[in-house]
Amino acid sequence: MNNEPLAFRMRPKTIDEIAGQQHIIGKETALYQMIKNGHVPSMLLYGDPGIGKTSLAYAIAGTSRLPFIALNATVSGKKDVEQVVSEARISGKVLLFLDEIHRFNKLQQDTLLPHVESGAIVLIGATTENPFHDVNPAIRSRCGEILQLKRLETEDINALIHRALQDEDRGLGKLTIEMTDEQVERISEGVNGDARKALTLLESLISASDEEDGKIQVEDWLIDNLIGRIGLVGDKKGSHHYNLLSALQKSVRGSDVNAAIYYLANLLETGDLIAVTRRLLVMAYEDIGLAAPEVGPHVLAATDAAIRLGMPEARIPLANAVIEMCLSSKSNSAYKAIDAASRAIHEGNAGDIPLHLRDAHYSGAEQLGHVGYLYPHDTPIGSFGGWVDQQYLPDKIAHIEFYEPVIAGEEKKIASIYKRLKEFRNK
């Protein structure tokens, strides 16, 4: 068997062999037509590991037939970049694939960017991190296309596995392998859209299977065992992690228990318990808020318990918290109120503190006019407690209302009190 990994051998040679990514490189796309007509624009490829960024770059190189150089920004130095520039001068045009492009340093950029701008070097950069956060603007500005690749669908992975099983030159076609369609489907479903993992798992599976009378018989238990060891996508520092946090919060906000529990499970598998508990606590006050004020303390207790317990037991109180938040009444009124007040301050929409609210606990305060404050507790109002009609906001913004109640859950009671006090003030 070839010593090169199966995933490497099965890389597509042209864009017609690409599995999935039809929204980017399908035959009806402008990019496909451009490359077929001999024009390759500089571009950034963004997406999770194993979904085809490197394969797409190699396929574009194979189709365009441009001189092709592949570098990794984590290990390449200025000398490597200068060699690319020299090759471009000799050949007239070079296609450079730069993996981990978000790690490109300024010295490399200064050497390379003028040649990218002139068109002598066509740059295809690949990154697992959000290019708008982690790729230098100088590089982004010279890449006309920023393409976000998607995880491959099960049928795309199926096609890729069948191609590997049948290909006699690059794949496993010279071997007699007995695999059912159901087993291929099981692999495809178990790799979460990662083509590289699928082919790596297939190769491991064949190596671990018994051979009898020249036939390799694949067993179900072996597939299940290997799938359990292939690991998860993402880590606790990458863009995928922050996408999971975002998806968790939006699922809770949308009251979708099943989606929220799914994203919580994903996050806990990455091992960053602190980030998860912090986000859950923020959500309790940002998205549930005054509609169910008891949820905040409940979530605080759950997150404290999770930190004390550690994994795997931490998942239990956190699951309780997530389900309670999903099914609680929701209000973002407090969050919106504080943001509105902050916005007013930053926009210069502020004023002097009224004299009667200023500190008067010293001799001379009366001379400065710090008088006139009315003590609310001296004026009871029904069962509410004390209240007196006096101005608290600065004159300039006394008309502004930052708080807009949401009529939900327990906030209905708060909203009615707020409305009643406004009526008293208006009288």
From TrEMBL:
Ranges for domain AAA+ ATPase: 39-151
Family annotation (SMART domains): AAA (SM00382)
Pfam families with a match to the protein in the record: AAA, AAA_assoc_2, MgsA_C
Gene3D superfamilies (UniProt xref): 1.10.8.60, 1.20.272.10, DNA polymerase III clamp loader subunits, C-terminal domain (1.10.3710.10), P-loop containing nucleotide triphosphate hydrolases (3.40.50.300)
Domain of life where this protein originates: Bacteria
Keywords: ATP-binding, Nucleotide-binding
Matches recorded under PANTHER family: ATPASE WRNIP1 (PTHR13779:SF7), WERNER HELICASE-INTERACTING PROTEIN 1 FAMILY MEMBER (PTHR13779)
Family, per entry: Belongs to the AAA ATPase family. RarA/MGS1/WRNIP1 subfamily.
Name of the featured protein: Replication-associated recombination protein A
Organism name: Sporosarcina contaminans
